[in-house]
Amino acid sequence: MSNKILFGLMASATLLLSACGDEITEVTEVNEVGMKVIEKGEDMPNCTKDNEGAMIYAVDSAAAYFCVNRKWTSMKGEKGDQGEPGKDGKQGKQGEQGDKGDKGDPGDAGSSCTMEALPDSSGFKVLCGGDSVGVVLNGATGEKGDKGDKGETGEQGPKGEDGKSVDGAENILIDARDKQIYRIVTIGDQTWMAENLNYETADSHCYKDSAEYCSKYGRYYTWMDAMDSAAVFSDDAKGCGINAKCTIKTPARGICPEGWHIPDSTEWKTLSKLTGRSAMSLWSKSSGIKDATDDYGFSALPAGQYEGNYIDSSFNAVGTTACFWAASYKDDISAYYFDMSFMHVGLMGMMMGHSVRCIKD
């Protein structure tokens, strides 16, 4: 469930928004805006798991930032018209580098918010967790400012880390339960998560028990865990598992986000057929798999599988293959899964730990 945030009234706040064309309008009135405003971008708190989904507007850079996967990502508007070239100014002396400031306290955790244009194009409605929390009105177009003098050449800053793209809400899925963000892709008539599920359950595991690998490979789940046989989110596969007879209601949500489900054997076979049974077309180019092309954007990674028992546990085939559970079972101990290396549906013991890819209802 998404956390709700109390939004305070903010006076004299100024935001720059891009209209549908090249026109740039200035926002001069803000009513209960769902983002924190700070004077300087350098005062932004660290982007952590606790404030995942938070939005901050920095006045000095006139830019909004979105906290995604522990990185601040700029939500830039459309590029404006290029101004006239200025005259060369005199080269100034290079100033001394200032002392590094103290690290600020982390901000409060936020929730994911979006902006929806008002029907009369007078501004935007702010939606957080599906609820309307305020309105941002368009201000009048300001006059063109005078051309500024050429400034001194500054020092080059360090290269930033690559962030996850959030351009276009149609290409991402935000899990309301833990605010995890996943890329999605449509292949034929199917819409898939383009990343492995990383929703934590009591019986799930990370490769080498490392959160870093969970971010990369997602988590390993037993078939019962993946199908939500405990009926935490739905009763589609309630009671299903080892030595248990049950009837699975399809589509079976399992532990997927709401509106998504565990693909059954037929849906995996459809994907294989659409790609001409070409594993290379589904492997991510960064997978380390030779000749991987990722033609469809499925971006599979060779997470292998987890084998645990009461005596020992191990991770197998990491770096060489990927195994995904299917919402189908054969008998009291075995269920179906999709093998990426051979592009086929096979059988595996229900206690084995496999990856989960959800498909849209």
Can you put this structure into words, describing what you see?
The structure is a single chain. With 361 residues, the protein is mainly β. Helix content is 6%, strand content 25%. The protein has 3 helices and 20 strands. Strand 1 and strand 2 form a beta hairpin. The two termini are 20 Å apart.
| Number of E-type strands | 20
Q: In terms of structural class, how would the helical and strand content be classed?
A: mainly beta
What spatial order of strands do you see in the largest sheet?
3-10-9-8
Poorly predicted ranges (pLDDT <50, ≥5 residues)? 1-33, 77-81, 160-168
Subunit organisation of the chains: single chain
Instruction: Tally the structural domains.
Output: 2
- Give the percentage of residues in beta strands: 25-35%
Largest sheet: 4 strands, antiparallel
In DSSP terms (H or I, runs of 4 or more residues), the helix count works out at 3
Average pLDDT, rounded to a whole number, is 78
Measured as a percent range, the helix fraction is: under 10%
Shape: elongated
The Rg value, from CA coordinates, equals 25 Å
Report the end-to-end length measured between terminal Cα atoms. Answer: 20 Å
- SSE arrangement, N to C: EEEEEEEEEEEEEHHEHEEEEEE
Task: Please outline what is shown here.
This protein is mostly beta strands and 361 residues long. The protein is 6% helix and 25% strand.
Topology overview:
Blueprint: E1 15-18, E2 24-27, E3 29-31, E4 36-38, E5 55-58, E6 63-68, E7 71-74, E8 113-117, E9 123-128, E10 131-137, E11 172-174, E12 181-187, E13 190-193, H1 211-217, H2 223-227, E14 260-261, H3 265-274, E15 305-308, E16 313-316, E17 323-329, E18 334-339, E19 344-349, E20 359-360
Parallel strand pairs: 4-5
Antiparallel strand pairs: 1-2, 3-10, 5-6, 6-7, 8-9, 9-10, 11-12, 12-13, 14-20, 15-16, 17-18, 18-19
